Each structure stands twice: as structure tokens, then as C-alpha cells.
Write a sequence for this structure.
């Protein structure tokens, strides 16, 4: 058995999701290799050299992979994956975009978004927006897997000086060009990495009202999230969205404000340790999963919460 | 320009599914079915491109049971020109669906293939990317904006942390995110007209591709349940409980 983990990074540091993915890889039997492709990735490589359980690092430093274009990155991985029995990446937009291209070329049916490793060929994964958990056995000779990062702890960084092997640039396919990107700027923790999240829903009524969450978030060191209804109504940008079709989070504390608790939202947050719901509708489904519920108008409750902290 | 839109018949998104009593699969008996919401968005985008004079024909295709004809009729009522059902009684995995679609692309030669980013039943998020790989076409997943030119298409994608714009050479594959558009409703006259539109049925076994399952579903269970907790009277009580009982804030 031999396992390859595709690292997600921003050319500066490893994304947290990569650390969770290495933990999933370590629970399989076999040596773990981490592949890092990008531009000026020395800092990323030296960070990866400290990851526990990793035997080897494959590195490709090239402009070709600066923006993780799936067409280009998949051909690099395909030309360097001979002999590996498992190929893993985080189930983030990065991994979801990339991995099925690799799986199809290897003629392997990918197993998406695993939440546990039962054995080297058997995994658990949520289906139907997390309403059910499926146990799936893969019979393909190469298992291509994406890992739900909230289901695995980040790997420790106690190792040092893991061997690094350079691999060669495969060049660009030329069929997909990077034009640009617009990243949301925030001083707050990233949603998927935050210990505390406060989210607003349709009940917030407008984007301006989200500032009521901001100062509470600052006091708690929390990230701000939103339901799909709030995103669709244009209150906040779409990368705030927590749910089946947005981000999957599992913080210590999740505070849902003005969120009814549709299946699609619960799929994204119901593994949080403690859930608090503030809603004026006492029949809102969110109260069926919340540890602490408060029936109140959020426009009076939020300023009160702010001053109580 | 010809656009192919694969659509999937799935459980209606409002239905909360449960496992069968023997945990062998999910219980889909007498459950309301519908077009997968992401597929509706894909179809809407294709129809809008046609209405804007940028596409000449929109073909809806589904791979699945005979009942999927209902969803294809819906697609025809929403503006698809014709439909194709690749019929099979077994539930195909994304890789098999991608292989079947690859065959169809070889025959139909569409310029653009627009799919939903994921189906809300399997939650796999694989088919579009797999089809892209099999055809060696470029892909833009999670699209929230599409600008079509003569030989290329510029797509804004939703990524973790913001937006990314890519330019793909045509023919290309796009998968849709929720914010791409707001799908229309089918009007009664259009539903009537859809009954006369062409719907071809091809048995999947005639496609000459390996559609056997690669994975085995060993069991389906309910996730660990969460019990409803306590209701608090006011903010002070809430903050007190978070500090002293749950100990999640200082």
C-alpha cells in the first residue's frame, strides 16, 4: 500500500484542510507521500517536512501550477502516481474540482467527502445532505478519495527533514487560462478553521444588519457565516455560506441567528459541538438540534448579547 | 452552437430521506421526485444562451430509469429543444454516467456541456469533471457567471475564499453553482408543447461502455442523532450557560 496526498496551499502555507487529509491518509496502512505543486513553494515544502507520518514529499515548483488549474495539475499528478494505491485530497473546492479528473483517467470511481476510514478499501460518507451515512467499499485498484476535513483532526507537526524529491513540470494543456481572482478580505478566522462561528439567515433582513454580528464575532474571535437564504438574498458574499452546497463546518460553538434550520443548512453545521439558536419562531426546526435555544427577536437579542460579552 | 445539458431525476430537495429498515439502502418508496436543483440551473443557463441568440440548440439528456422521462419532459417545457433518455434500471455511478455521456458527445458533438455541480442525492460532485477528463475538454466547476464568445467561454467560479475567473477553449464543460441564475417555472402552454417535442430513448446497454458498479454500498444508516437541548429565557441565561455549563466561551 502506498498513499499519495495532494496538498492544497496558497503558495505561502499549507491549507488547514491538507493537515486533516494527512491524518486520514495516516489511518490507512502504507507510506504517505505528499505532492506539492505551485510556484515559489519552498515555505510550503518546509512546512510539509514537519508533518507526522509523512515519508516523502514530491515537489514541483513551476508557474504552470500557480493557480491549481485542474487540467494542468491532473496531468502532473497522473504522470507521477504510478504505484500508489490511494490518492487523497481535501474535499474543498480545490479537491472537488481536481480529483474526479484524476479518477476518470485512472478508470477509478472516486469516493467523495469521506468522514471515516473503516479499512483500506471501506469508507463512510454522508449522502442526501447528511440525512444518511453510507458505508462504501471501493473495488478499484487505485482508490481516489476526497476527505471531509471537519471529520479528521489536523496532523501533528513533530517530524523534521522529510525527504523532498523534485518532479518535472508537465507543461500547460493550454485549453484553460487563468484570468483573475477576487478574494474576500477578512481579519477574522476562516470559516472552516474557526472555533466559534456566528451565522445569520434570512431573518437578518438585510446585508447592513450583518454588522450586528460583526462586533459579537470580534469579541468571541469568531468567524461570520450565513445560510443559503441570506446569501441568495444578497446579504453577504457566497463564500459565507454554510451548508450542503456551501462550507461544511464543525466548530466548538455555532450560533445560528435568524436561521430556520433547513436540511441543506443543517448538513453544513450539525456536527458542531455546541449549537445555539436565536429565532423568533419557536417552531423553527433549528431548535430541534440546538443545545441552547432562545426565542427572541434578533434585533433586540443581538445588541444584548453584544453588551453581555 | 449546440449545448448539451445532462439532468438527473432525484428525490425532491424538501424530502428528508431515511434508511430502509434493513439498512441496505435509502428508502425511496413513494417519495416525491424532481429535477436535481443544480441541473435546473444548468438548463436555465442553456435556454438563456439560446434566447440571447448565442446557442442554436439545447439538448437535455438523462441517464436512468424509464421514469426519468418525466424530468426530461419538464426540461422540454422549460425550453430544451429535444431530449434523450439513456435508459437503465440500475443506478449508475458518476464514472459510468460520464462514460455514457462521452459516447453521446461523440455522436452529438455539442460545443458546450453544462451540468449541475452535484446531485443532491449522492452529493458526489464528480460527473462534470470526469466527463471533462474523458473528453480532454477544459472545465469550469461551480460557475456563477458565464460569458460566451465564439471560440472561448469566460467563467467566474465560486472558490473557497472568493471568486476565480477562467477562460476555456470551446468545446468546454461547465458545472453550475446556485447563484448562476434563477430558474423559471414552466407555463401550462409550454408543458403542453413539450409533449410534442422529440424524446429519444436509447438503452444504456447499447452504448458499448462498461457501466458496472465499482463500489459496493455496504450499509446506509442514520447519522448520530442530536437531541434538542434546553430553551433559555434571556441572553443573560444564555451567556451564563455558554460560560459555565458548556464552557465554550470565556
Amino acid at each position: 500500500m502506498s498513499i499519495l496526498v495532494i496538498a492544497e496551499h496558497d503558495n505561502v502555507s499549507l491549507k488547514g484542510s491538507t493537515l486533516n487529509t494527512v491524518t486520514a491518509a495516516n489511518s490507512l496502512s502504507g507510506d504517505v507521500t505528499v505532492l506539492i505543486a505551485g510556484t515559489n513553494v519552498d515555505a510550503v515544502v518546509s512546512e510539509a517536512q514537519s508533518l507526522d507520518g509523512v515519508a516523502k514529499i514530491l515537489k514541483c515548483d513551476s508557474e504552470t501550477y500557480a493557480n491549481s488549474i485542474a487540467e494542468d495539475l491532473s496531468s502532473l499528478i497522473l504522470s507521477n502516481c504510478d504505484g500508489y494505491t490511494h490518492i487523497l485530497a481535501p474535499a474543498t473546492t480545490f479537491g472537488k474540482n481536481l480529483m474526479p479528473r484524476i479518477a476518470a483517467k485512472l478508470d477509478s470511481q472516486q469516493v467523495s467527502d469521506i468522514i471515516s476510514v473503516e479499512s483500506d478499501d471501506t469508507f463512510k460518507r454522508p449522502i442526501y445532505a447528511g440525512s444518511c451515512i453510507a458505508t462504501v467499499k471501493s473495488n478499484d485498484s487505485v482508490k481516489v478519495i476526497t476527505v471531509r476535513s471537519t471529520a479528521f483532526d489536523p496532523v501533528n507537526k513533530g517530524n523534521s527533514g522529510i525527504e523532498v524529491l523534485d518532479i518535472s513540470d508537465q507543461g500547460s494543456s493550454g485549453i484553460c487560462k487563468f484570468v483573475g481572482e477576487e478574494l474576500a478580505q477578512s481579519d477574522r478566522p476562516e470559516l472552516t478553521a474557526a472555533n466559534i462561528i456566528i451565522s445569520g439567515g434570512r431573518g437578518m433582513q438585510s446585508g447592513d444588519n450583518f454588522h450586528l454580528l460583526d462586533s459579537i464575532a470580534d469579541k468571541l474571535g469568531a468567524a461570520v457565516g450565513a445560510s443559503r437564504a441570506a446569501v441568495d438574498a444578497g446579504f453577504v458574499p457566497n463564500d459565507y455560506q454554510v451548508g450542503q452546497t456551501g462550507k461544511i463546518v464543525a466548530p466548538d460553538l455555532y450560533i445560528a441567528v435568524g436561521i430556520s434550520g433547513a436540511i441543506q443548512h443543517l448538513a453544513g453545521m450539525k456536527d458542531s459541538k455546541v449549537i445555539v439558536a436565536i429565532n423568533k419562531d419557536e417552531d423553527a426546526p433549528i431548535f430541534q438540534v440546538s443545545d441552547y435555544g432562545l426565542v427572541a427577536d434578533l434585533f433586540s437579542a443581538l445588541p444584548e448579547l453584544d453588551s453581555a460579552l | 452552437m449546440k449545448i448539451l445539458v445532462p439532468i438527473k431525476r432525484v428525490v425532491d430537495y424538501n424530502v428528508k430521506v431515511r434508511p430502509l429498515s434493513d439498512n441496505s439502502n435509502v428508502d425511496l418508496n413513494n417519495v416525491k421526485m424532481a429535477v436535481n436543483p443544480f441541473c435546473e440551473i444548468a438548463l436555465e443557463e442553456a435556454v438563456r444562451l439560446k434566447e440571447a441568440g448565442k446557442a442554436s440548440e439545447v439538448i437535455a439528456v438523462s441517464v436512468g430509469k424509464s421514469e426519468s422521462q418525466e424530468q426530461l419532459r419538464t426540461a422540454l417545457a422549460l425550453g430544451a429543444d429535444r431530449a434523450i433518455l439513456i435508459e437503465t434500471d440500475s443506478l449508475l455511478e458518476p464514472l459510468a454516467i460520464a462514460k455514457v455521456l462521452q459516447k453521446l458527445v461523440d455522436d452529438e458533438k455539442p460545443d458546450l456541456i453544462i451540468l449541475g455541480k452535484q446531485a443532491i442525492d449522492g452529493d458526489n460532485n464528480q460527473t462534470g469533471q470526469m466527463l471533462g477528463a474523458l473528453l480532454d475538454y477544459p472545465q469550469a466547476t461551480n460557475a456563477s457567471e458565464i460569458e460566451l464568445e465564439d471560440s472561448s467561454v469566460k467563467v467566474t467560479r465560486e472558490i473557497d475564499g472568493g471568486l476565480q475567473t477562467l477562460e476555456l477553449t470551446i468545446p468546454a464543460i461547465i458545472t453550475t453553482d446556485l447563484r448562476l441564475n434563477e430558474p423559471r417555472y414552466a407555463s401550462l402552454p409550454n408543458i403542453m408543447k413539450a409533449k410534442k417535442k422529440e424524446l429519444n430513448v436509447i438503452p444504456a446497454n447499447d452504448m458499448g461502455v462498461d457501466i458496472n458498479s465499482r463500489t459496493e454500498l455496504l450499509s446506509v444508516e442514520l447519522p448520530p442523532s442530536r437531541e434538542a437541548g434546553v430553551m433559555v429565557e434571556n441572553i443573560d441565561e444564555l451567556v451564563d450557560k455558554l460560560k459555565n455549563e458548556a464552557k465554550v466561551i470565556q
Notes: DSSP finds eight helices and 16 strands in chain A. Chain A has a mean pLDDT of 95. Chain A touches chain B through 90 residues (CB under 8 Å). The first strand of chain A starts at residue 2 and ends at 6.
